[in-house]
Amino acid sequence: MRQHTNPSVFIVSSLVIIAFVVLGVAYTDPLLDGATKVRDWIGTDLGWFYVLATTFFLGAAIFLMLSRFGSIKLGPDDSRPEFGTVAWFAMLFTTGMGIGLVFWGVAEPVTHLHAPRSEELAETAPSPAGVGEALGLSFFHWSFHPWAIYIALGLSLGYFAFRKGLPLRPASALYPLLGDRAFGWPGHIVDILAVFGTIFGLATSLGLGTLQINSGLTQVTGMPNNSLTQSIIIIVITGIALYSVMAGIDKGIRRLSVINLWLAFILLAFIFAVGPKLWIVSSMLTGAGEYLGNLVQWSLSFPSPLADETAATFTTGWSIFYWGWWISWSPFVGIFLARISYGRTIREFIIGALFAPVVVSILWFGVFGGSGLYYELFGEGGFQDGDEASAAFHLLDALPLTPIVATIASVLLIVVVAVFFVTSSDSGSLVVDTLTNGGDTNPVKLQRAFWAISEGGVTLILLVLGGTNALGALQAASVVTGLPFAVILVFMLWGLFKGLAKEPKPGVALKKNGDSSRSKVDAGRTARQGGDNAPKEEDGT
Q1: How far is it, in rounded angstroms, from Cα 210 to Cα 28?
Q2: How confident is the model over 513-533, as pLDDT tens digits?
Q3: Which of 43-57, 115-129, 192-206, 405-419 shows the highest mean pLDDT?
């Protein structure tokens, strides 16, 4: 235990996970009710903090990209990136939100069309006049702000782990503020919160992905949509994820991510080719204009129900929920981003993790969401008659396709969802293992297997025995962890700015006695549970 784990984090995290699974199965409805009430209270009374925090993260990312700090590398000055640009982007995108885009790509814009943020549009909803806002709000929830949140943690960890030699764990980013205490109980609490948010956030997403795969299989093959089918899906996907994570980042996660990026691109191009092309282009541009034109206003918006009840309800129900959800996911995505970004400059990191995914998100929602809005308004509609998991497949039914082509497209969509499922699971397993072993970036195979199986097990037990209500309780509980972690992220950025302030200006050499901050950091190395943090050639990682 002491050789390969951080016992405090590992044991406490495991007990919390087991306790929540037991409660989720035995007391599903009370747990859902309690977690939902806490989440709603945070959204109503403390949503303003989410608004300010996420806007601060976005502003900080843009500042660092444009400042002199942008040329600083996440590693020694002579370090080189481990992965090529395409592979790096494929991994960060598929891990960050790939499966969510497929799930919500059609469902969210259609929902906003029927229940808009604007009171004026709400009076006539659904109507073509609401298309721009429906897509603009979808872009708002899935573009700059979530990736700025991931960058806040990923950049801080990448800097302190690869440039300053600290373990790859959230507590390391607090070292400039806490000193050696960052590796004591305060750091353990931060790491436990990160494990909680990662495991339960992943289990929720994997559960939603399972429901979507089951919906597609039912449509294509007639396979029943029940707990037995969902159990088989989870077991098969977990098995593939287990193989991938055992193969390591290069042989497993990287290859799957690149394959899935191309499959998603083929699917996107196909939907555009057979869909209402002129409408898609028009609505996408209109939505992008709506998004960029209202970016500052929406970013700083926390309306009172006394002033605008429609906007207030929408903000707490959608935007504040999303900010909490992305923040709860930030340990998982941020640590993985840091892990694969060794050798890149801060400017490269921010451009790749902030602007490139935004372009993909706009294209995805523009094509899938735009097509869904067209057929909802001018076709047979009915996208809201079923659940969100079936919305993308409902779009394939609405497109002018022959039965054979529609079946092939449905199978391709199922494959894309399944591979997104796998890449999320295996990268999540690697991250949780890193969190519970003290920051070693090359954990032993047995531990990787343990966490991969644990994620699948948590999803299986809650979805099959607890049903969708258990998943809802899990999601609400994950969002609740976003509040304390939002505070932690603010302090992490504070620590990052303190560390960067000690970096020499361009053209100024370090003094012979070296950077004083580096000598101070050496004291924290004894807290590590693993070996050298620099990338190693072990099992492809």
Answers
A1: 19
A2: 444 444 434 433 333 334 344
A3: 43-57
DSSP 419-478: HHHHHHHHHHHHHHHHHHTTS-SS--HHHHHHHHHHHHHHHHHIIIIIHHHHHHHHHHHH
Give the pLDDT of residue 87: 87
What is the identity of the amino acid at 281?
A: V
Residue 260 region, left (φ>0) first, then alpha (ψ -120 to 50), else beta? alpha
Residue 252 DSSP label? I
Q: At what angle do helices 107-114 and 370-378 cross, to 10 degrees?
A: 50
For residue 299, give every residue at least 6 positions away whose Cβ sits within 8 Å of its Cβ, in sequence order, or none: 51, 54, 55, 58, 145
Phi, psi of 48 (to 5 degrees): -60, -35
Helix (H) or strand (E) holding 86: helix 85-93
CB under 8 Å to 88, separation ≥6 — which residues? 81, 340, 341, 344, 352
pTM, entire model: 0.87
> Does a cis peptide bond (omega within 30 degrees of 0) precede residue 126?
yes
In DSSP notation, 225-238 reads: -SHHHHHHHHHHHH
Name the amino acid, one letter, at 216: G
Euclidean distance between CA atoms 427 and 95, whole angstroms = 7
pLDDT above 70: percentage of residues in the chain: 90
- State the Cα–Cα distance between residues 413 and 327, nearest whole angstrom: 28
Angle at 393 between CA 92 and CA 428, to 5 degrees: 25
Q: Which position has the token pair 């079946």?
A: 407
Helix/strand/coil for 342 = coil
Return phi, psi of residue 290, to 5°: -65, -40
Q: Which residue has the tokens 């989720």?
A: 24
Is the distance from CB of 166 to CB of 384 less than 8 angstroms?
Answer: no
* First-last CA distance in the chain: 22
Q: Which of 431, 434, 430 is nearest to 448 (CA)?
A: 430
Q: What number of H helices and E strands is found in the chain? A: 25, 0
Helix (H, G, I), strand (E, B) or coil at 5: coil
